[in-house]
Amino acid sequence: MNLETINAIDALLETPQRIVIIPHKNPDGDAVGSTLALWHYLNDMGQQAKVIAPNDFPKFLKWLPNNEQIINFEKDAASAKELINDATAIFTLDFNHLGRIGELQPLLEEASATFVMIDHHQEPSDYAKIMYSDVTMSSTCEMVYNLIEAHKGISYITPEIAICLYTGIMTDTGSFKYSSTSSRTHIVVASLIEKGANNTLAHSMVYDTNTPSRLHLLGCALKNMVILEEYRTAYITLSQEELDRYDFKKGDTEGFVNYGLTLEGIIFAVIFIENKDEGIIKISLRSEGDFSVNEFARAHFNGGGHNNASGGRSEKSLSETAQYFTSILPSYKDQLTK
Q1: Which GO terms describe its molecular function (predicted)?
Q2: DSSP 3-state of 101
């Protein structure tokens, strides 16, 4: 964190604030972990804070301390609107464009509160007065730890804060295997374990609580995998009918896209998931090495994110989206096969 950002946040928090903390739509481990950790910390410091999520989050994160305090906008819009209208400060975590928060977007665009962005994705927009944006960070949870450290609050990290931050770092680094995992990340994680984060529990609760239906859905996804060796690429499709057949629950497809990268020689993996309710195909893209799925998603699928992990969407049908994807790969052959 630079000194200007530290001073700006310190000045904001010198006086009591009515704070709303918001993650992106379909919040993942980093989004839930960072918002809950910041909620714990700010309230422990005497601030008045609430977390409002645009929609629900996966069951495998609902063991995190005080997760039931998160207000789901889809289920309790009235309370959420009242809190946002009354807020003096709004912290937005793990996203950098208001388009990532769904139906909450117009409410935040009209809000008069001071906005603070904490995020590690590329190409941030300029809606926040105070921006802590760093694409080199492993996760937003690592950034929240840095914020607490800069605020001279490390001694106030409780086991509850520690496990929330640990879980977010663990999930956003692929259990510490992604290139964004730095020596600093491991120092932060070591500190969180010392502060009471149960690393074994976090891994077990996130990765070892599968249902039979989720594993059957994974089997379906792997059966659907298409391998394009000439482009060192693999992609998976999942239709709405297949999701329904295997009793899909939010979060069930988490991590499916990564299976393509476990294949020898594959450096680009994508999953296309049909969502009939929203009328779109949701897309997750992963890569290894220098191939930027952030640039690819921005150019073709209205998305973006990180160089090696991004998301996007398509309004074409599932089959048309897959066909379009394969049709543009020849333009990237030199990048994928060098």
Answers
A1: nucleic acid binding
A2: helix
Pairing type for strands 233-238 and 18-22 reads: unpaired
**Which of 51, 27, 53 has its CA nearest to residue 38?**
51
Give CA–CA dist 190/148, Å, rounded: 16
Helices (H) and strands (E) in the chain, counts: 13, 12
Q: Is the pLDDT of residue 201 over 90?
A: yes
- Convert 103-157 into a string of H (helix), E (strand) and C (coil): HHHHHHHHCCCEEEEEECCCCCCCCCCEEEECCCCCCHHHHHHHHHHHCCCHHHC
Domains of the chain, first to last: 3-207 (3.90.1640.10), 212-337 (3.10.310.30)
Q: Which residues are within 8 A (CB) of 124 and not within 5 positions of it... i.e. 6 or more apart?
A: 96, 97, 117, 131, 133
pLDDT of residue 179: 87
Question: How many CA atoms are closer than 13 Å to the CA of 45, on its beta-carbon side?
Answer: 25
Residue 287 tokens, joined:
């890569």
pLDDT tens, 205-219? 999 999 999 999 999
pLDDT (0 to 100) of residue 274:
98
Q: Is the pLDDT reported for residue 336 higher than 90?
A: yes
- 64 three-class SS: coil
Flag whether the pTM goes above 0.85.
yes
